[in-house]
Please model this.
Amino acid sequence: MEDKELNHHKNIFQDCNINFLIGSGLSNPFFGTLGNIETWLEGLEDLKSKKTVSDENYLLAKSTLYKTYFDIAMRGNIDIHSSIITKDEFEPAETTPQEKLNNTYKAYKDFFKTLNHILYERRSNTVNKQINLFTTNIDIFNEKLLEDLDLQFNDGFNGIFNKKFSLSNFKKSFYQKSLHYDNISEIPVFNLLKIHGSVTWEMKNGNINFSNLGIVEEVDNEISKLSLLDIKKMNDDKWDSDDRNLTIEEIVEEVDKIDPKPDVGDFISSYEKLQIVNPTKDKFKDTTFNKNYYELLRLYANELEKENTVLYVMGFSMADEHIREITIRAIKSNPTLKIFIVSYTETADDIISNFLDDLIDIKSFPNVEFICPENGFNLRKFNDYLLFPLRDSIIEYNKTNS
Model:
């Protein structure tokens, strides 16, 4: 990174309200991509509305897609939770699940550790030492790393034996008073706002409570009792054929051949206890926490409307139309807002294309910049490219000017 660009980010971290929008790309390679699951789930609902699928086949196909989503995005949280990773270097290869977990963990660790140091070095009196982390990820990487590093964070929960979620728990500041001289200093804090819910949330008496991974383990247990279609294998086999795209009609056709059909009632009942947004466009219909979902989106909108705000978008393709709409509105209405979109690919075609769905040429806005110096620009490379040099530069500056 050139010195001019580095100084630009240094000034931003010194004086701006700092926000990150984090998507599933940051938890790669440990968690895979969702592929066509959204398309299949929506296709299944369409078949149901047209009454072209029987109720029995609908439930079995729905269970199969839920299981596929669970396998890709949720089961691995059990391994994250139980892992004690002391190795502080990257694996040379990412072949086994453990190697992928170690490298994803290490990249997150460097990310939070460095951000915390940068916040600690902040000398401005006009902004606090907080960073907002808005994420659509339902996995536990963020909270696992923040806890393992013993950093202060607000995740919306309060309590010990009965931890309840409330939006009022965000934005709390923490101060440390020295034992001998009573000097008071502000401690860096991360606000973790999980817009799409979390695998650790459960609904209890009308409140969102912290369930740890109890529901994930319950769902995993129910899946172990069933023999469902392997959608991933079907998709891979179809990809090798001339007509590559596996359709929901083909999935339902295979489901129809299953005889006798397993009873999936207990599995669906357990799965739907999860307080998460399923990967469908009609997200609101699938959640029982609409109020909190809207409120978290409102907090996201409010932050983007503040003066001198910066947003780093990472691992997020802007495919979510609700978040994209709010972001576009803020880009147009807040001239002091600065957005950096960090892209995995050098061309950022997927992100640009998603904005074009709203007839927005995102590259035409002066307050939006892309950070995509090379293909395969993941979290590890972002740390090397921006955060480490930024931390070192700020430390050096503070030493020189103290």
Summary: DSSP finds 14 helices and 13 strands in the chain.
